[in-house]
Amino acid sequence: MASVRTLSALMHETGSDLTIHVTGRQWWWQIRYKGAHGTSDVLAANEIHIPVGRRVRIELATADVIHSLWIPNLHGKTDLVPGRTNVMWIEASRPGTSRAQCAEYCGLQHARMALPLVAEEQAAFDAWLARERLPAPGEAGFHRARGRVGRPSPLAVEPAARSRDG
């Protein structure tokens, strides 16, 4: 649990090692890691990754209604209010997974707005971020990975041929 002294120290604007943009949406979280040194941004959903021992600035916004991000192991509640960006600072002292949650009733699916926060060593965080920056495989990559290159998809067969075969 974060102490008052820890929260006070984190709130002072002395710069951060990492800035993450979190947008609350009905009923999920959009996470954006800003690209550094010409790299592309990384977009994720419903899971935050942070490196252990680094100060992290989280910029909070909402796309629709009021939400409130609560990370009990690292920070108290911070509201996400339409038209406004709020900031919270966190720093994990050890690796592990914490549960964050929307703490403001935001509609019928509010209970689905749990958010795992994964704190990991710097090397593991860097590897995760590098994997997330890779382009998603297209259909060819999907079929190649499953050994289907050169074979037609069963869904590509003409409907008339399907009915003749049974």
Q: Can you tag this structure with a few keywords?
A:
single chain, 166 residues, alpha+beta, Immunoglobulin-like, five-stranded mixed sheet, 4 helices, 20% helix, 36% strand
Strand and helix layout:
Blueprint lengths: L3 H8 L6 E8 L2 E6 L8 E4 L2 E4 L4 E7 L4 E5 L3 E6 L5 E5 L5 E7 L11 E7 L1 H12 L5 H7 L13 H7 L1
Parallel strand pairs: 1-5, 4-10
Antiparallel strand pairs: 1-2, 2-3, 5-8, 6-7, 6-9, 9-10
How would you describe this structure to a colleague?
By secondary structure, this protein is α+β, with helices and mostly antiparallel strands. It has one domain (4-134): Cupredoxins -  blue copper proteins (Immunoglobulin-like). It is built from four helices and ten strands, in the order H-E-E-E-E-E-E-E-E-E-E-H-H-H. The protein has helices at residues 4-11, 122-133, 139-145, 159-165, and strands at residues 18-25, 28-33, 42-45, 48-51, 56-62, 67-71, 75-80, 86-90, 96-102, 114-120. It has a five-stranded mixed β-sheet with strand order 3-2-1-5-8. A five-stranded mixed β-sheet has the order 4-10-9-6-7. A hairpin with a 3-residue loop joins strand 6 (67-71) and strand 7. The protein is globular. Mean pLDDT is 83; it is low at 148-166.
Strand order of the largest sheet: 3-2-1-5-8
Number of strands: 10
Shape: globular
* Major sheet size, sense and barrel closure: 5 strands, mixed
Corresponding CATH architecture: Sandwich
What is the helix/strand order?
Answer: HEEEEEEEEEEHHH
Q: What gyration radius follows from the Cα positions, in whole Å?
A: 21 Å
Would you state the CATH class?
A: Mainly Beta
Cα(first) to Cα(last) distance is 63 Å
Strand content: 35-45%
> Which structural class best describes the helix and strand composition?
alpha+beta
**Oligomer class:** single chain
**How many structural domains?**
1
Mean pLDDT: 83
Helix content: 10-25%
Q: And the CATH topology?
A: Immunoglobulin-like
Q: Which spans have pLDDT < 50 for at least 5 consecutive residues?
A: 148-166
> How many alpha or pi helices?
4
What's the CATH H-level homologous superfamily?
A: Cupredoxins -  blue copper proteins
